[in-house]
Design goal:
single chain, Rossmann fold, alpha/beta, six-stranded mixed sheet
Length: 195
Amino acid sequence: MSTQRVLLIRHGETEWSLNRRHTGTTDIPLTDNGRSAATLLKPVLADHAFTLVLTSPMRRAWETCELAGLNERAQVDRDLMEWNYGDYEGLTPKEIHEKRPGWMIFTDGAPGGESPNQVRARIDRVITKIRAVAGKGNVAVFSHGHLIRALGARWLGLQVSDGRHFLLEPATINVVSYYRDVPAIEHWNARIIRQ
């Protein structure tokens, strides 16, 4: 039976995540709070041995990986970039719903950006890469909110649209693994609390 654990780590707070702006392709840094929260991940992750460390190339994910102490071993994987929000980049949900009531990224995709099927293809490539090292050890993945939510759904064999059921805050650790070789979620949206 597989004992592999995959830690899906959302990047720390940015100015846009704080203001609930959709941040896909805009490469912005962490806030001071985001850097502090990412630093709190370091002692927790130090307790784990990782066979593979993957990170989105976006500054906010890479910086979180670095502050968490895993950047020297990290491989950049463009498939871990956040959803391309296209015309909705930088807009808040309220601004989008004024134009398109009922819109949801997980089911509707983004005009001028990515569809759920395009994101699914990227996620499935990441999952294939992770499962290729299943017998060799644990994996750490640094990525983004909507992408990790969809990845959690795909890990379970669900659709990208089911990512809407997985809430996720910045700088959280989410652990997916197996129950008797059946993909499972072990922990979700776990925050590291400053002591």
